[in-house]
Amino acid sequence: MENMLHLAPSQALPMDRTIFLREQLPQAISAAASLPVIDMSRSSDEVRRAILDAGMEFGFFLVVNHGIPEEVMRDMAEVCEEFFQLPAADKAYMYSEDRHKPNRIFSGTTYETGGEKYWRDCLRLACPFPVGDGTRDWPHTPQRLRGVIEHFTTLTRGVGMELLQLLSEAMGIRPDYFEGDISSGDVVLNINHYPPCPNPEKTLGLPPHCDRNLITLLLPGSVYGLDVAYKGEWIKVEPMPGAFIVNFGQQLEVVTNGLLKSIEHRVVTSSTLARTAVATFIMPTPDCLIGPAKEFVAEDKPPCYRTVRFRDFMRIYNVVKLGSSVNLTTDLKNVQKEI
Q1: pTM for this structure?
Q2: pLDDT grade, residue 107 (50/70/90)?
């Protein structure tokens, strides 16, 4: 597979492999709706209610005053930029198309999407908790990269777990419901770099998809690129200084028996600006059994999803719908029937 790492950005991907019909890429809306902003410095009752309301309405929200120092977020953004600015030869040893390899660089997407490629380079890292030898296969340059990423990941996971606790309390389940195997897998980081694209109207950075994990926290950088599906349209999500963009993964949809939804989103490209964004995925352990919690099942609301091991879910759910799909990705209930 051709990849951006060994080519100038303008030559990175053959355009005949990344072109979509114009009608497949409708423009994002920017005024019809916007994601809620949740201020975590407010009272616990307010934050709990705001998280649940945002989750039920959008499946996405922004969080501010989350407790992670600005310098930590800034250092993370800077070291990721430094990594992608390294000469290709200095990072080629990390390149692999083996999607089962936990630490690697690749281009395009890991979904099976019929051969189309996407305008993205990605450094994917798996961070075990507690942090230990699992980071030995991380890049060794820039020199400060490992320390910065370990610190950032530890703090970001902490915010994610706090959000899950507040959400649990808001839904009336025990506060520690999401502790244990359901959140104790490796924290996976996708450090995505989107170079300037010659034809952004016909090329995506990432196709419409839903996250397969539990909860995701995105450090979006300063350049717009994320669109979120909402009522048959796309919301254009503008970055906010100091904020994380948070969205629910499909395991939260399963646990809540569909009360919360994992919402489709995509990444668009720019002809003039590069964009680097860091997605932190809180994951279950591979053998974790995940199904609807008893609190969300009743005689008039039977289980909508099967209880399955997370590794089996990940093995089956690896296909996304291409093009302009808005809430039309493969239905999660139907996917589970194949497991």
Answers
A1: 0.88
A2: confident
